[in-house]
Structures are given as structure tokens and as C-alpha cells.
Amino acid sequence: MSDVDTKIASLKIEAPEALVKQTEEFAKQIITILPGIHCAVGYGLANSMLIEGDDGNIIIDTLESCEAAIELHKDFQAISSKPVAAIIYTHNHADHVFGTEVLAGDNLSNVKIYSHATTRKMFDITGLIQRTTFQRAARQFGMYLTEAHGIVNDGIGLHLKFDKNSRRPLLYPTDTFDTDSLNLTIAGRNLVLYHAPGETDDQIVVYMPKEKVLFAADNIYKAFPNIYAIRGTSTRDAIQWVSSLDLMRNLRAEYLVPSHTKPISGAEYIYETITIYRDAIQFVHDQTVRFMNQGFTPDDIIGKKLIQLPKHLKEHPYLQEFYGTVDWSIRAIFDRYIGWYSSKESDLNPDAPSIRAQNLIRLGGGSIKVFESAQTAYSEEKYQWCLELTEALNLHPEDLNKSEIIQLQVLALQKLASFQTSANGRNWYLTKSLEIQGLIEIQPSPKQVSQTIMNAPLKSLFMFLSINLNYQKASEFNQLFLFHFQDTNAKFSIHIRNGIADVKYQWPENIQSKSIDVIVEVTKEEIWKQVIARIKGPIESVSDEEIILKDGSGEINQELIVPFLIFLTMFTSD
Ligand SMILES: [Zn+2]
């Protein structure tokens, strides 16, 4: 181990020079595109744009947290103190929406918030997987990394200013459209909002026809497109993205203002840049499908380097793999069309990871021998193999000291990080190296969790209940609960049966009173949110008569507290 030990002491987590240089793209500044049209770069992960109007201003995208927006709000105010008349969300992603409360300033209660109709739907469902995506996004964006840990940047922005303590009130759009485009005149400024599904399905780009300024959202930035995000997304529809870029280039804009990386100008240059970007996406899509049709799996295609960007694409400044990568895109496109199964027979019903680890270690002559092989792999610079072996040893350490395995695994992760051009991959490796040492634990603060619940629409909260059903507890349970909210007259029903919770946004029709187990009358929606967020206990709410329990025929019966509490215990996320 001595050889490796010395390396720990001397290790500096290097980074590809090009990724280090990419940081220059994010120098904090407000760039004036044309009089009254500004783009703020470097205040958060994304850009935020200010358009001054006659009697009010328009802001496009609002950064990732209130903390990130505070300084920007001050600087925007210094440019123009007119009230913010409208805010436009280019899409639902966290780095574009969470600073609204701050940036809207004094006009928060009157501000109009525009988005595509799909954005609202995306907000509703984001919560479904937020537990895992919080953790995965923290790794991708290096949210817990400092410079001492080797963070360089986030590829399309300097650093996501968003951690377990950030405030992120989610303000829903007030005005949405579900057509291809929407013409608006706000404070004397004419804008066309185009639905342009690309990096997300709800993406819109904003065009000012008179000034020929195109706000490109996340459909183009100065880094290889993220056709798949390792933080966890469904694969972006590459074909749709390409046609949205066609729409964008055909506008022949004089100014292109993306929501990440610096704006550019010149109609011809913009046309060429969008063209090369759309061509790269089409290239990776078409070639992946081509090799897929020849029977190749993603491992084959990537392992044999069957798809390499042609030289003019590979060398283009907008296609450097600082964010998305060609290899991850190949896997994602395969998955989008074909699904998880590679077609290799041993992948059809694989053993559990712990059994595979055990078999590997037995084959290698026991854990001590395998650990020696992992050390050899490290000194021979085979870091991927070293990582695989240490992962297996972690699952099946036998007589080995776990801390020794982790030490070697950390070194392998740091080395793999140092070769990664994609900031996403680098940040992931480095974050994981801290996690396995027990130095960080990634989770939102309890306050953030309850804030999210309090801000969510009631409908979403009911929907999320079904994914928190503990089916082992509920397997023998068959009960129907009806809910009525007195302040809004909203009605819901939950029927737990067969290990599922069937949630409906209304009461069943023609229901017989004897089929109803409990009717839950709630005086205010807020009370129910407090119960879900564990701010107030259900027993207390019942005794305060904020929750009134009735039987199927509508008679108040406080003894129903027992089945009500049992019902609530069925929903535990862990
Ligand atoms: Zn973004």
C-alpha cells in the first residue's frame, strides 16, 4: 500500500485545460445587447435577461435560488427601477425559476409569469422523483464541492448556487399557452414566444422581431448538448430538438442570447452556429440508430468507438464535451428507442450486485488477492478497472479493512475525475469520493422539505401519496377514504387496495355509504399540508376541529381517529 499512500499526499486533482478555460465564459457581468436589452451572466448557473419597456420591465429566467437572485436584483434595479411587469420561464428547470420572488421585487403580487402550458405540468410532476433527483443533481452540479475539493465549474455555468439551505419558493406561471407560438406586447415591447421542445419538452424561445434578438433558452449553449442528464432525466427527443433548432436558425436573428454562456451577434455567425449544433445532434442520433439496427449494444458502440464526431464537429467551440457527452447520448438514444435491455442473454436476468461481487472475488482468489489486483490496476493507470474492483470489494470485503478499500476507491474516483472533460462527470466522481468517506450527506434540509410541501398544489400532494404507499404494510388493507376541503371545495378520494393507492381528484359517483370507510372534512387546504409536512400532528388537528371525521353516511364520529391514523401510517416514504 505504500506506493499508493504517497500518492494520497501528493495528489492534486487536475482538470483538462479546456474545462478550466471554460470558466472564462462565466465571468460575472451584465452585457447590454441593444439599448434596454441586457443579459446577466455569472450571477447564477444560468443567465437572466432584462428587457426594459415603456412603463415596466420584462425578465426572462430567474436563476436557481433566492440567494443567487439577491445581487442580480440590485444590479437590475440600478439599470432600471421600473416595476417588473412580466417574467418569462423558458422552461421548468430549477436553475431558471427559483429566484422569481426576489427578482419580481415590489411588484410580486401583480407580476405576470409566462410559460408554455407544459411547464405547469412539469412543475406538478417534478416532485414525484425529487428525492432521488436532489441527490443526483447535487452530484452532477457538485453542489457540495468547494475549490479545495477540486471543483472547476458546472460546464454551462460557474456553479449552481443552491444547497440544502437555499430558499426556493416555486412561483407557478400565471399565463400559459399550449399553441405553437404566442404574440405578446408587454410595456410596448413586442415579443413572440415559440414553443421549441429541445433540452426539455416545455422549452420556449423568445424572439423580438423588430430588434432581431433571439433568446435561445437551453436549446443551444457553448458546450455539447445534454441529450441525457446524468442527474436523471428521460432522454431528450433529439429529432424534436433538431427541428426546434431549425425553427430558430430560420428566424435569422442578429443577436442570440442563450440562457447559459455568453450571447453572440451577427446573423451569419448565428445561423452557422445553430446549424452546426443541430447537425451534431442529428449526427449522434442517426448514427446511434444506424448501429443499433445492425445489432450493436451501447457498450459495443462506445467500446469499439464506432461513433466519433467528424473533425469539423469535434473541433467546434460549441461542441466541446464540457456538459453533455457523445457517449452518454448514445446510451440515452438507445434507451429511448429500445429500453433497458441490451439483448445480451446474461443481461436478461442478472444476479444481484452482491452475488456478482462475491463471484468476481472468488474467481480472483479471494478479497486480499483482488485488492492487490485493484492496487496494481491503479499503478498501471487502469482507473476504471480499479474502481470496478473496489466497488465489488465494498460489497464483499471478507477479511479486508473497509477503510483501506475506500481509500483506494477515492483515489480511483479522483483520477477518473481528473480526466473528465464533462464537468457533470467530474463533479459526480468528486462528490461520490466525499460521500463514501462519510464527509458529506446529501439531502435537503427539513425546512426545505416542508417548504416544498407547503408550496405544492394540493392535487400534487395527493398524487405523491400513492408513491409513498408502503405496500408491505398495506397489502391486506382495503379501505376507501374521501376528502373534502371546505375552503376551496376540492374533493379527493383514496382507495387503498391490492397494495396500491388509487387516488382520484373527485369522489366516486353513485357510491353507497357503506362502501365508504371515512370521510375526512378539512377546514383549510393549509391544514392538510401542515399534516403532510409534519408541522402539525393529525391528532391535534382533529382535536382542534380543523379535521372532522365522518362515517359513510356523513355522521361525525371522532372514534374514526383510529382508522384515520392507521390510514396515515400506510404512507411512509422510507
Ligand atoms: Zn439551464
UniProtKB/TrEMBL annotation:
Pfam families: Alkyl_sulf_C, Alkyl_sulf_dimr, Lactamase_B. Gene3D superfamilies: Alkyl sulfatase, dimerisation domain, Metallo-beta-lactamase domain, SCP2 sterol-binding domain. One of its GO terms (biological process) is dodecyl sulfate metabolic process. Keywords: Hydrolase, Metal-binding, Zinc. GO terms for molecular function: linear primary-alkylsulfatase activity; metal ion binding; protein dimerization activity. It comes from the Eukaryota. The keyword Metal-binding applies. Residues 45-260 form the Metallo-beta-lactamase domain. InterPro entries: Alkyl/aryl-sulf_dimr_sf (IPR038536), Alkyl_sulf_C (IPR029229), Alkyl_sulf_dimr (IPR029228), Bact_Alkyl/Aryl-Sulfatase (IPR052195), Bds1/SdsA1_MBL-fold (IPR044097), Metallo-B-lactamas (IPR001279), RibonucZ/Hydroxyglut_hydro (IPR036866), SCP2_sterol-bd_dom_sf (IPR036527). The keyword Metal-binding applies. Belongs to the metallo-beta-lactamase superfamily. Type III sulfatase family. This is Metallo-beta-lactamase domain-containing protein.
